[in-house]
Amino acid sequence: IGGNNNPLRDNSREQSLSKIINDISLHSLEFGPPNNWLSLPFLSTGGAEMVAINFCKAIREISPNSSVLLIITDRSAVNEKIEIPTGTKLIVLNDYLDKDFSYPKKQALLRDMLTALRPKCFHNINSEVAWNLIISEGEKLKKIVKIYSSIFAFQFSSDGHTKIGYAAYFLEKGLPHLSGLISDNKRFIDDAIQEYSVDRSRHSDFW
């Protein structure tokens, strides 16, 4: 077993990881190690994206000797009008993949990045790729990195009763692996604690 004949190895993903690590290393030489990572599904001008950009700025103000990694996971859509803050490295996963842009492929690449570079904090904002990774492998990952997520509201289908969206699809399964849930909507935090019967000992992890 070994070399290119090892069926357990994904050579294309290893090449993608190597390119990402190289780009991050070059960025780190100028701005410091990327201790804090954020993930977004795409980069547009919506509220979630602005939250992520503001987090990047705040982290740099608090820790000017370290950099920030902003990872675009689900799609390659990046609005060129968005100004990336100084010290923030933008990584678009699709740019490092050859042909397979599937969620499982990107999920595995994101896992490889986390296990190889081990940042202090990984903060997911609306990335389905990241949510799927948190749910499937969060028990292992939380031992090497603090995992946070932001959700801003419960969403409802047209019937006004059926919950849809990130909270409905991912939050309950992902909660055990999160170090904290962050929102700008206190009503959502209160409702989430009640909806998912969050143990009182964890209430301080929601803000």
Summarize the structure.
This protein has 207 residues and is an alpha/beta fold. Helices cover 42% and strands 17% of the residues.
Highlighted features:
207 residues, alpha/beta, 6-stranded parallel β-sheet, 8 strands, disordered N terminus
SSE layout and pairing:
Layout: H1 11-31, E1 34-40, H2 47-62, E2 67-72, E3 88-92, H3 103-117, E4 121-125, H4 128-141, E5 146-150, E6 155-156, E7 163-164, H5 165-174, E8 180-182, H6 186-195
Parallel strand pairs: 1-2, 1-4, 2-3, 4-5, 5-8
Antiparallel strand pairs: 6-7
Residues in helices, as a percent range: 40-55%
**Shape type:** globular
Q: Provide the succession of SSEs.
A: HEHEEHEHEEEHEH
Main sheet specs = 6 strands, parallel
Total helical segments: 6
* Measured distance between first and last alpha carbons: 49 Å
* Overall mean confidence score, pLDDT: 88
Determine the strand fraction and express it as a percent band: 15-25%
For this structure, the quaternary state is single chain
Low-confidence stretches: 1-7
Rounded to an integer in angstroms, the radius of gyration calculated over CA atoms is 17 Å
Q: How do the strands line up in the largest sheet?
A: 3-2-1-4-5-8
Secondary-structure content class: alpha/beta
Q: What is the total tally of β strands?
A: 8
